[in-house]
Structure formats: C-alpha cells, structure tokens
Amino acid sequence: MADPWQECMDYAVTLARQAGEVVREAIKNEMNVMIKSSPADLVTATDQKIEKMLLSSIKEKYPSHSFIGEESVAAGEKSILTDSPTWIIDPIDGTTNFVHRFPFVAVSIGFTVNKKVSVKGDLERPESGRGQSMVGKWRVCSGTQKLAISKTQQNTIYITKSLLVTEFGSSRAPETVKIVLSNLEKLLCIPIHGIRGVGTAAVNMCLVAAGVADAYYEMGIHCWDMAGAGIIVTEAGGVLMDVTGGPFDLMSRRIIAANSKTLAERIAKEIQVIPLQRDDEE
Ligand SMILES: [Mg+2]
Prior knowledge:
Strand 1 (33-35) and strand 2 form a beta hairpin. Helix content is 36%, strand content 16%. It is globular. Helix 7 (201-209) packs parallel to helix 8. The chain starts with 5 loop residues before the first helix and ends in a 12-residue tail after the last helix. The longest helix is centred in the first third of the chain and has 21 residues, at 6-26. By secondary structure, it is an alpha/beta fold. It contains nine helices and ten strands. Strands 7-6-8-10-9 form a five-stranded mixed β-sheet, sandwiched between helices. It has a three-stranded mixed β-sheet with strand order 3-4-5, with helices on both faces. A two-stranded antiparallel ribbon has the order 1-2. The chain has two domains: 6-133, Fructose-1,6-Bisphosphatase, Chain A, domain 1 (2-Layer Sandwich), CATH 3.30.540; 152-270, D-Maltodextrin-Binding Protein, domain 2 (3-Layer(aba) Sandwich). It binds magnesium ion. Magnesium ion (MG) binds at residues 47, 70, 90, 92-93, 95.
C-alpha cells in the first residue's frame, strides 16, 4: 500500500536542503548571537529566519497540519503534541557549533502522526531508508547512503567494547553539571572504549544509525532535537529508550538511542536522572 505520508517526507527533504543552503551561506557571515535559557543556550537570526521559512512553506502546503518549532516555542508558543500530523522542527541543531563554525550542524525536520515519530509503512525495515530523508544537511550520512547500526555490537553486545556519544548539555547549574559528569565517570569506568559528542543531538543520533557509534544518551534536550533523528535510528535497526529503561517519550527531554535493547538497558542502569520540566508541561 502506498504510504499516505510519502509526499510530506519528500517535501521535508526539499525544505531541509533549502534550509541547509541558508546555513551554508550564513556561516560565512558575521553573526549576532543572543542567549536563551542559559549563557550556553544560544540563538542567532539565522535560527529564527530558517524556522520562519520552514513554517511558512509547510503552512502554505499543509494548512491543517500542526507545528512545533524550537524558536516558536522560545517566542512563547506551546509545545503540545496532539494526534494531528505535526511537523517538529529544529532549524539549526547545534547552534553553538554554528556560532563557532565548528562544522557539525543539522536542520532537523521530524514528522509525527498520532503522537508517534513514525509514518505508516515498514518502519522495521532498515533498507527502506526513509528515516534518513527526515534530517537535512548532515555531513556524515547525507545523500543516498544506506544506514545500519553497528553489526559487531548487534551480535556481541558488550558495553566494554562500546563507543558512546553524548553531550555536556547547555545547563550551567552546578548540580546539573555534577550529575552529567558523574554519569560520564560511571560509564567511562565500566570501562568502555570511549565517549564522543559532536555538538548536535541529531548528528549524534545519526552516528548511531550509521553504526560508527553504539549508543547516544542525553538529558535536557527537546522534542525538536529527537524527532527527526529518532526515526533514523529505528529505521537503521536501533532502539530508542528512556534513560530510566522505560519506553521512549518524545516530550520527556531525555533519550537513549542504541544499537540494541541490551546496550540501552545497560546504559540506563548507570544513569542518574536529571530532574527536568517536560516539553509539554505548562
Ligand atoms: Mg536549534
């Protein structure tokens, strides 16, 4: 059966490519950097410009669809997920990278129906490759490259042989930083092979989907950081889980994306949870 949402996905790819061009141009120019929730939570006029561009294009083509966008929420819009087809957008995932010209930035476009980061179709089939189309400019796995999670770990899932990806986050509250560092310490001392992070949740998750990292975890991120890349991980054969070991919740602001359930559960066992206000909490 034809996928009723295929047209939306194709449109998302077109929009992400256009937005990527805007990022490429803007990165050459001087930037006016503003701060949001913390001195390390940055925004530029380009973030706002791209979100406006995406929002107006989507509203014109799909007037009945809903929309959650990082910069719209920053400007006071609510981020409530409903059953209606919803576009969840991070115009620039990795704004700090963008500001410093650290070359890992994503335009993330996610799409949910009935609150699920999925569309009708064969989501369990890694070869469908549909997920990769939902994130735009991405240097590692762009184009038509087929994604698949790391095979070695699929067969022998030892955390001691894993390479993880995570971030320090944008909170500078000492009690939060302490938990972030303590989680890193616990995982490193298991011991594991290593921990990396390229400064954007979307790209970090795509690295798991591509099989070059075994798992990603983070707390304090938002639905727009996870919606686009989450499906890329599951389509590549990976799993999404909450950091408590329970089911993944898009509005919970936390995630483990891993090459297997076993590895995700093992990471969850080590993680101390940071208390956070949900994305859909008033
Ligand atoms: Mg952003």
